[in-house]
Amino acid sequence: MNDWQRDWPAPAKINLFLHVVGRRADGYHLLQTVFRFLDFGDTLRCEPRADDNIVLATPIPGVAPETDLTVRAAAALRTATGPKGGVTLHLEKRLPMGGGLGGGSSDAATTLVALNHLWRTGLDSTQLQAIGLALGADVPIFIHGRAAFAEGVGERFADVSMPAAWYLVLVPPVAVPTPEIFRSERLRRDTPMITAREWRPGFGHNDLEAVACALYPEVGRHLDWLRQYGDARMSGSGACCFVEFPQEAAARAAFAALPTDMRGFVAAGLDRHPLNAI
To answer: Fewer CB atoms near the end CB (10 Å): N or C, the chain?
Structure first.
């Protein structure tokens, strides 16, 4: 198999905590969080074309192909590095839209990493992260490729290590628009800052959670069910929620008890992105 025939993973992320610690003059919120990847996500395959077009073979219903983050990522890389020919992107989606698991950002990051390799553009991680940040605040962490304490708008990283863990992730039947959460006057924006060295597993909370639950009660219902198993939290701006288990068997037992009107999945936590060695 040559590299053009391989599958490129685009894993989910969860935010183990998420604090809003301020707001910049330009309106962007200042955050502190810890990102961890999950062994579950989307898959990308790239196919070279004889023309110069960038084509998404598997468009998402309701999303114009030219606005899809994978297409935008490919175009941004080609703009930054010069003509490289066309490509057809085949994306197998498993991660929900508006779920807080970073699906679109992960897809964009994998597109940048894959095409940087396939097109032999030679950009390093820092250069790819700069392109990714222009596409979305969560894109750089997937290119950085390691579990990390993040600050700023989520683009400054300090790597962290943490115990092995499994996660039961629930996917409420709602899509939560991130801008709506950050626009809310209910959102707390003054949580005290900490340093990366002060962070410990189990620390903190998600400042966006109360707003998301007020606007989308299904998020709160799913969190309430998870809390029988521990310190359940929402990821990102929602809607997905998770609880941590030290062993796979316990996570799968909880998943087996899931009410019939709820859906989700079990996944191992990863400290490195599957493409971190590329």
So the answer is: N
